[in-house]
Amino acid sequence: MNNSAPLMDPRQFRRALGNFACGVTIVTACGPNGRKVGVTANSFNSVSLEPPLILWSLDKRSSAWNTFKDASHFCVNILASDQIELSNHFARPQEDKFSGISHLEGLGKAPVFEGCSGNFQCANYQQIDGGDHWIMIGQVEHFEDFSMAPLVYHQGGYAMVLPHPRGRRPETGTKVCESSDLLHTRLGDNLFYLMIQAVNASHPRFVQQHLALGMRNSESRLLMVLDSAPNASLADLQQAVSMPVREVEDALATLQAKGFLQLDDGKRQVTPAGHSMLEQLWNTVRKAQEELFSELSEGELEVFKKALKLAMAAR
Hints:
This is Flavin oxidoreductase. Keywords: Oxidoreductase. It comes from Halopseudomonas phragmitis. Belongs to the non-flavoprotein flavin reductase family. By secondary structure, the protein is of the alpha+beta class. It folds into two domains: about 20-155, Electron Transport, Fmn-binding Protein, Chain A (Pnp Oxidase, Chain A, Roll), CATH 2.30.110; about 170-315, Winged helix-like DNA-binding domain superfamily/Winged helix DNA-binding domain (Arc Repressor Mutant, subunit A). Helix content is about 40%, strand content about 25%. About 25% of the residues are buried.
């Protein structure tokens, strides 16, 4: 019997792991020499209530390893949904990641960020060899809970938490579900409630249609952006598709591997196969819009678009 593990593509393996939605954190520490380190990590998880233990994992290639190993404490900063830039900042290799970054001093002088959803300040409890990562276990000595909406990571892109729709369209002869009744109450006049419920109701349709075409939501979004802005910088692409830089680079590589994108003299170009895929993607969007908004006139649609753009500008 051959007990060796089957060979697998690390990129595809990590892509599959991305189906598990998780929160985004920045883990920080300060070494005995005063050096401060911080890394963006989505491997945070709970371990035990008694004693209160949590874990996260650190790439063995990380230059921050020696500091985390020798520090008495580390702090897990759970990012809020509006802290994408902070996440991207600490995901990039830099000489001094804390230059110009406001922070407080926690236990063991580990940096603590304000505006987060919460934080866990931990004593170094145990470090376990886990393949190409170190599994870092910490014993929580202090925590703060600010209950901010968290930043979420799913399928290679940033996401945010939305309330799950509780009701489905009722079958013939059944009582109208509670969520439908709410549309005829005072809550039904709340624009924020309506926007959230509208996204909940419509977004899964696009995701499933794009998956049927062999495209992940993050890949289809990126291809659509490149169709409109082929010369966009990496930072602009990050902003447009809400993805970490590594995931943008991986998605670009995937689009190239699928033959939808090519590089000519360092410039990105959508290939004929890419344009063919784009036509299919835009057709799904066009058909969905026509179905959803068939009862609106052109003038009403323009007002609707203006309202959405005003909401986006308020970010």
